[in-house]
Design brief:
mainly alpha; 57% helix; 7 helices
């Protein structure tokens, strides 16, 4: 004769006497992370705050132009010289984006003549920017080879031209030279 669980006094003693834990609690209890110790909510919040502060400090150092905080493409005395050279001069290229917004607005005007003039303005600004980029690139390569003999001039012309097409306020790292400063 088989015994039912209710009739077996030994089985009634084996009951745990507490509620079954929720699945997420049981999984979290058994989960072992070999890299970091288990953390509480407060520890996670503190870690997030520390990471946020580190990102803020890193961004500030990048915008100041600290060599350690710059990406590889912006590091070195040659790139700093190119940034300073471009930042000390004004160019039409830095006004290209606002000019394109104005051209876009002008193309909405129902007059065919105004739309045509807006398109001509856009293409002439684009042409000027490209021609300016060629000349400023040559000038930058010449100055870099004079000031830093033995340093490679590969990519400095394009680097300078692209920086000259960005609006001054939006340049990263921030300009270290004022307009008209000598290099």
């Amino acid at each position: 004769m088989s015994k039912t669980p209710e009739s077996n006094p030994e089985r009634n003693i084996d009951k745990k006497g507490k509620a079954t834990p929720k699945r997420k609690d049981a999984v979290a209890k058994n989960k072992i992370n070999s890299i970091t110790a288990p953390v509480t909510k407060a520890d996670r919040a503190k870690s997030r705050e520390a990471a946020k502060n580190a990102r803020t400090a890193s961004r500030a150092a990048y915008m100041r132009g600290d060599q350690d905080a710059l990406p590889i493409r912006d590091r070195g005395p040659v790139k700093k010289f190119v940034r300073d050279y471009i930042d000390s001069r004004r160019s039409l290229g830095e006004y290209f984006l606002p000019l394109m917004v104005a051209v876009l607005m002008l193309t909405l005007v129902p007059s065919v003549e105004i739309r045509f003039l807006a398109i001509i303005l856009m293409y002439s600004a684009m042409g000027y920017s490209i021609i300016y980029g060629v000349f400023v690139g040559r000038r930058i390569k010449k100055l870099v080879s004079e000031k830093f003999p033995g340093e490679s001039t590969k990519g400095v012309a394009l680097y300078g031209w692209l920086r000259s097409t960005q609006m001054r306020r939006l340049r990263a790292p921030s300009p270290q030279k004022k307009l008209g400063d000598t290099i």
